[in-house]
Each structure stands twice: as C-alpha cells, then as structure tokens.
Write a structure and sequence with these properties.
This protein has about 140 residues and is of the alpha+beta class. It has 4 helices and 5 strands. Strand 3, helix 3 and strand 4 form a beta-alpha-beta unit. The radius of gyration is 14 Å and the shape is globular. This is Cytidine deaminase.
Length: about 140
C-alpha cells in the first residue's frame, strides 16, 4: 500500500482517537480501516465503568465497517496516544482475523510518527477461522 493511503488512514485513526471515551484509563486509541472495496471506516475506544463492557477502537471500526455493508479488511491502522506502539489485544486480533486474510496489514503508529506494519498472520498465527466451525 502506498504511503499516501497509509497517511490518510493514520489521519482518520487520530481523528477518531480524539473522540475516545476513556475516563478511567486515560488511554485514548483510534483505529481506521481500509476495506477491500476501498471504503474507509474509523473507530475509537469506548470505556465503561463496568470494565468488561468497554469496547476497543479496532472493534468500533470493525462494527462501523460491518454496519455499512463491508466485510473485508485490507489494512487497519491503530493509533497510540503516546510514544509506544499500541498492538491490538488478543480479542481484537481475533476480531480483525474474522474479516481479514493472512496478508491483511496491521499498522501500529505512535504520536511521534513511529510505525510498524505486520500482517494479521504474524500477529495471530493460529487464528480461529470459520472453517473450523461445524454448522
């Protein structure tokens, strides 16, 4: 993916991050998705006083994508609020894998512009996939 498109996704992720609801942790995260149909979606984390009920930025962006009728992630950017890369949690890795192929790019970026790109297969090498579910 070209650097201009990655920068656009980073900008979307940081714009979403500005709306994060994180009164308990103070850790504001943003995410932006480029779907295989070339649409973009963003999301922020939404905390809840009952901690397990909160939602990560990646989950919000995926929900926005699905709500709009898209079902395939080409690239996802995760914007950290500080100098450290913000890798997706285990649950979000599985959520990304649900809508990704093994080559889907996951880009983590910091406020200072440091970034790292991995594939979802590198982040979650043994993802539980739908072909493992008996229906």
């Amino acid at each position: 993916m070209d650097s201009k498109k990655i920068q656009q996704l980073m900008d979307l992720a940081y714009a979403a991050q500005a709306n994060a609801h994180a009164p308990y942790s103070g850790f504001h995260v943003g995410a932006a998705i480029l779907s295989h149909s070339a649409n973009t979606y963003s999301g922020c984390n939404v905390e809840n006083v009952a901690y397990p009920l909160g939602q990560c930025a990646e989950a919000t962006a995926i929900g926005n994508m699905v709500c709009s009728g898209d079902t395939a992630i080409a690239t996802i950017v995760i914007a950290s609020p500080n100098d450290e890369l913000c890798f997706p949690c285990g649950g979000c890795r599985q959520k990304i894998a649900e809508f990704a192929d093994e080559h889907t790019q996951v880009v983590m970026t910091t406020r200072q512009g440091k970034s790292q790109t991995l594939t979802i297969a590198e982040l979650l090498p043994y993802a539980f996939k739908s072909d493992k579910v008996a229906v």
